[in-house]
Amino acid sequence: MAVATGGCWSDVSTLHKTLLTRVDMYEHDHGDAMSASALAQLLSTTLYGRRFFPYYAFNVVAGLDAKGDGVVYTYDAVGSYEQVNYAAQGAGQKLIIPLLDNLVGHRTRLDTPPELTAEEAVKVIKEAFITAGERDIYTGDSVEIITITAAGKQSEVFKLKED
Fold this sequence. Notes:
Elements: E1 2-7, H1 9-30, H2 36-48, E2 57-64, E3 70-75, E4 81-84, H3 93-103, H4 118-135, E5 142-149, E6 152-159
Antiparallel strand pairs: 1-2, 2-3, 3-4, 5-6
Helix pairs in contact: 1-2, 3-4
């Protein structure tokens, strides 16, 4: 599983430390790793518990479900979440989501949506972040892309700008 968070760095850091502690407690108590859906619910209740003074943190959880299929959950600041096919949070969200709607979600398109391999999905992600990075100064200079499969997870840091 992976949790990606955009927002205020101090809130993001505190939220991630809290989640890591609770995941460790879960694994210690149950003797098994937490599932993606359990992490999704844990994050929701953690955020909702701070609803009157919320973390300035907007999250995406990705992982594998019990069948080994990929799942993605997206959140608002107070813990409302939904399972989606793709998501983006943070500075470039408003530029990335329309691109993903077109290329991955095939919203308002009449042609058949292609089946994306992991490599093709990574290419789409890179193009989306290049596009956002060129038009939004807050998107940053690089993006960490994590590919999660049944064999494990791979991480790649992709540089957007060299200046």
